[in-house]
Amino acid sequence: MSSFHSTRAGRGRVAAAVAAAGLLATLLTAGPAAATPDPGDLAPGGGSRQDAGIVEGREIAPGEIPGQDEIVHSKNIKHLANVPLAESATINTDLAFQGKYAYAGNYNGFTIYDIANPRAPKTVSQVLCPGGQNDISVHGDLLFLSTDSSRSDDSCTSVTQPATEKSSWEGIKIFDIKDKKNPKYIKSVETNCGSHTHTLVPDGRDIYVYVASYSPNEAFPDCKPPHDGISVVKVPKKAPTKAAVVAFPVLFPDGGNPGGPTNPGVSKTTGCHDITVLPSKNLAAGACMGDGILFDISRPEQPRVIDRVQDNVNFAFWHSATFNERADKVVFTDELGGGGGATCNEATGPDRGADGIYDITGRGDQRKLAFRSYFKIPRHQADTENCVAHNGSLVPVGGGRDIMVQAWYQGGVSVWDFTDSARPKEIGYFERGPLTTDALGLGGSWSAYYYNGHIYSNDIAKGFDVLRLDDWRTESAKWVWMDRLNVQTQPEYR
Prior knowledge:
It is a single chain. By secondary structure, the protein is mainly β. The chain is built from one helix and 32 strands. It has one helix at residues 20-29; strands at 6-8, 71-73, 77-83, 92-98, 101-106, 109-114, 122-128, 133-139, 142-151, 169-176, 184-190, 197-203, 206-212, 231-236, 244-247, 274-278, 283-288, 291-296, 304-309, 318-323, 329-334, 355-361, 368-375, 392-394, 403-407, 413-417, 425-432, 445-451, 454-459, 463-469, 480-482, 484-485. The strands form eight sheets. A five-stranded antiparallel β-sheet has the order 2-27-26-25-24, with no helix packed on it. It has a five-stranded antiparallel β-sheet with strand order 7-6-5-4-32, with no helix packed on it.
């Protein structure tokens, strides 16, 4: 049932629009702040939005913060290429891959890059189709795009419209990408509370799409509480225009984490932010605001929760999940501050806005998530830099070693080893200095993924970056070749 083919040679709701000033004021004045949704309506910070070219970076000293826009990186990482942010784009978001192409979402649509030569990526096409946040995935000739902002209709010429109006639309858009230079919009599927993110679950003749969304409101006709599950969209591979919602499984019959004031600083669970599936094991992990869950997807239309955990001390907003290769660990991320806050500073500390590493113990329905440790980048960021744990993927090293590459917004790109669940450590990094030095700005890497020998990063303000990692601990990954990668649908690499 796996959607990936890989070989080892030789053996990614802004439910209600959040005013930028209001969000920034909250982030700057709050102590242990509850999380807010992804940056959404905030515009990228000041400073240069584009690189003038590739400049060789340097290593930074412990405790040092690089200069404005300065590129720094560890010795084992080299910056190969940058494609500046397109004029039509606003905020770059998630990435997907297929063959020699990378697909990059942004709040105004998506861009297709030819990455046959990683040192010189080429823009193949840009599609204008506004609708935050445009989370993206691909399968065959189909591209799926999440719309999680209330729109006047389902077209690519829609405008914003209040979610209080019944005619407003949010959900999944499907494109035919057979012709990479001319993608065609072929189908839309409206889903309750929109689609903040989505995850593909291929199953024979069909593709199931798990749609994650949250933050219902009694004033929203299409997003009323309770919203305690996910929408399941069924897409026939041979007739994708017949795609439709076929189920809404309830994952939290007890309502999930109540959040504050019961659990101060923790988000109330009203849906899921992101789901990662491991089709080869019929397993999924959900990051669901105030809860982390492990569930069985052997029946794709009827996912079944096996275990659920909470962290009401250090986790504000369960954001995403990643299995290790042996499927005996899950890394959950906490998006403290919603991606718009400066939480990688000394004041926030090492355990908040971090990754939580959980071992999976037991078997079958007796499997449990057991907390082991936190990981946070050891490089303090300026108080003007938005920084928190965000989207990443495994580096497929095999051999029982667990290594991950991850985006941290203005904290840059981190490569870290969690082979020892209790003692994770950073082994490589790439980042730029603050976009701004006088006020909190929005920028940095939204998604950083490893694909066929290189790291690709979609930077909110700077564009599309390509990095090369040369480290003895990751050399084996260069022998792994994949024909596609949607990170939230994890492959079995061996």
